[in-house]
Each structure stands twice: as C-alpha cells, then as structure tokens.
C-alpha cells in the first residue's frame, strides 16, 4: 500500500552523503520509523514492526514538496477564477466564484460564515503555500535560525490542511439540498474539482516535507546548544485538571 | 539490539530516554515540545465503545433525512449520501467519488478496521495481518475529514437560511454524534502506544 509519496514515486535514498547533528538519532546511527516510531540501525530498509520503508530523512523531501506545491499553485488559478457553483433561479443562471460567494454572504450580513469561507478558502491555501515555500527555502539554504518558530509554523500548516475542504463540502451539500425543480437549483461549477485537487496537493506537500531537516542545520552558529536535556517533559493531565 | 528505552522525536529527531509514564501522563520532546505519547488507562476499551457508537450513528445518519429545504410550498429533503451522488447527476464524477470517500466510505472503513484492530489488541490475538490492519487504520485516519464536513454542513445551513427555511433531520443530529464519537475514539488511541503494543504482541523479530 502506497501511503507515502516517496514510496509511490520510488525516489532514491540520499542519506549516504548527509552529515547529521549531535544528539539526533541519525548521528547515533539510528533511524526512526515515521509511522510507528520504532528505532532501527542505519542500513535497515524496512521497519520490523510496521513494514514502512526506513530512511534517516525522507528521500528527496524538498523536491517532492516543491512538485506538489507547484501542482497546487497551478490548480489555485482555476479554483479562484472559475465559478464554484451555478445558481439557477426561475430559469436564470448566475455563476459565482469563491470571492463572489464571500461578497454575497457579506451583503446578506452573515459575517461569521463569510469569515469562515474567506479564511478557509482564500487565505489559508495561500498562506499554506507561502509557508511551505519559505520552509523549503530555509532548509535548502541550510539556515540555522529560529528552528522552534519554523517547527511551529510547519505544525500549523499540517494541522490546518484539511480545513480548506470546507468549501468543497458546502458545494456538495448545496447541490444535493437545493433542487426545487423549475424554481431554484444549484449546480457544481468547474472550480470545485480544481479547489479539491489544490487542497489534496497542499496536504501531500506538507506531508512530504521532513521537519527534521529544519533541526539538522540548527546546531551551526550556536542557534542550539549541545547541552539539551535528554529527559522528556511529562505532564500529568489528572493533576492539571484537579488544580 | 534493543532500543526499547530510547525514543527519537518524530519532528526534530532528538534522541532521548522515554521514561515509564503513569496513567494520564503525557511525554513531550524536550527540544521541540512535540507530543510524544500519552498513557491512558483502559484506552482500548474506551476507544472500542466509542468506535461502535460512531459506526451505529453513521449508519443511522445514512438511513434518515439529513437536511430539509422548504420554499414556495415545496419541501425537499436530502440524505447524507445525496451530497455525493447528486454530483454524479451533474457529471462531476471524480468529485462525487472523492466526496463519497471522504464522508462515507473512508469513515466506515476507518471505524470497521479500528474495531477489528482494537478487538485483536484487547484479546491479545497476534494474527499475522495485524500490522497491515494498523497501517490501514493509520492511513484512513490521516485522511479522515468528518469534522471538516460537519463545519461544512453548518456553513451550508447558514448560507441558504436566507433563501428558505431549513429543517434539521434526525440524520443531522446522528451525524454530529458520529463525528464526536469518531474524533474521541481515534484520539483515545495513542500512535506510539498502539505500535508498541503491536510490536510486543507480534514479537519485533517478525519481518512484516
């Protein structure tokens, strides 16, 4: 089962030339499985526990991320320029793009809904694409700066990915619901599929990016010290609740 | 070699010793603060109960009207699956398949295989296909979007409430229950804990 892009495209593993920072599992000659977090010695190709392909860092991580991002950028254009749905009222058809839909909602005074659609469909995809481009750029430049902030940005991008699908679901629901023959009906527009594709490809791009690359360069120039604590922080949620 | 006491952070690759966690205790990476794992008592049983309820509620929500739409004396109602199938009527076949997968096929398979996986873990049965089932659950979970669809329904209701009166069907409430159960069920199963259990059960020497 191909549940990861690098398995699907059978990209070459390029761990051999890489130099890994101290304190990392890679520097200790261990590779951690991305699916089940089991550790295996360098050189193993398949995880003993879950069978996933093993590597120190995702092979060709940046290339895959950029390829998926480019696809998403290309799809973003029809997704925003073409109508996402056509409303047929008494035989008269009006096409609405995403932005026109938001403006219509503002006109009707549904500000919260307009805000949800605007943020989820217009702002978030652009912000996600720019964030991933910037993260890839800093990793390609081997930037040692702000690993914590970049890590947090990556986690936000990963988390919000799915939420852009809201607009696709809204179209699907409205098409099914508003079908009063001869009076009022809603048809899906060509932008719906393009938008859906864009969301899927930005999710794949975020998934292909290996965030450990951010930390690999962070030891240079004293951005991180070598005396990190090696005991994880633990929080007891029962104690927190009883406070 | 045995690395069972060691853990490498998934997001920053810091190597550290993972201590024995008590109930309700969560471990976070000392460097990047990423959540490593949480120990929950009886998590398999809770997750199992929630997954069963979720599956029942999802089946309920496909059998009853989801939303109703009344305008000019006409009342139209739709079921959950209509939101996927009506796209086929407009020849948006690919989109219809994607929506069907995301709101019905994906969640049903996720819950079914999650139930199978949890039952096998509960009764400690090391059947050969166990890692494959866990991989399938892992994959279906990463593409699970039921809560996004729920927000989508709320947005749609607000969007057309100015055109006509909207009736919330029984299936709508069942779907809310299904969404909550599914989210709670998958959140109960800790990824690292689950694979540790599977590794112990299968014996890590077994090549998959």
Detailed description of the structure:
- The complex is a heterodimer of chains A (243) and B (208).
- Chain A is elongated and about 70 Å long.
- In chain A, helix 2 (61-81) runs antiparallel to helix 4, helix 2 runs antiparallel to helix 7 and helix 4 packs across helix 5 (147-160).
- Chain A folds into two domains: 1-59, no CATH class; 60-221, Butyryl-CoA Dehydrogenase, subunit A, domain 3 (Up-down Bundle), CATH 1.20.140.
- Chain A is 50% helix and 11% strand.
- A four-stranded antiparallel β-sheet of chain A has the order 4-3-6-5. In chain A, strands 1-2 form a two-stranded antiparallel ribbon.
- Chain A has helices at residues 5-8, 61-81, 98-108, 111-140, 147-160, 166-177, 191-208, 212-216, 237-242; strands spanning 30-32, 39-41, 85-89, 92-96, 179-180, 184-188, 233-236.
- In chain B, 57% of the residues lie in helices and 13% in strands.
- Chain B contains seven helices and seven strands, in the order E-E-E-E-H-E-E-H-H-H-H-E-H-H.
- Chain B is elongated, with a radius of gyration of 21 Å.
- The two termini of chain B are 18 Å apart.
- Strand 7 (233-236) of chain A pairs antiparallel with strand 3 of chain B, so a sheet runs across the interface.
Low-confidence runs of at least 5 consecutive residues of chain A? none
Tally the helices of chain B.
7
Could you tell me the CATH topology label of the largest domain in chain A: Butyryl-CoA Dehydrogenase, subunit A, domain 3
- Distance from N terminus to C terminus of chain A (CA atoms, Å) equals 46 Å
Low-confidence stretches of chain B: none
Name the quaternary structure. heterodimer
Mean of residue pLDDT of chain A? 83
Helix residue percentage of chain B: 55-70%
Structural class of chain B: alpha+beta
CATH topology term of the largest domain in chain B: Butyryl-CoA Dehydrogenase, subunit A, domain 3
What CATH first level of the largest domain in chain B would be assigned?
Mainly Alpha
H/E element order of chain A: HEEHEEHHHHEEHHEH
- Compute the number of structural domains of chain A: 2
What is the CATH-assigned architecture of the largest domain in chain A? Up-down Bundle
What is the level 1 CATH name of the largest domain in chain A?
Mainly Alpha
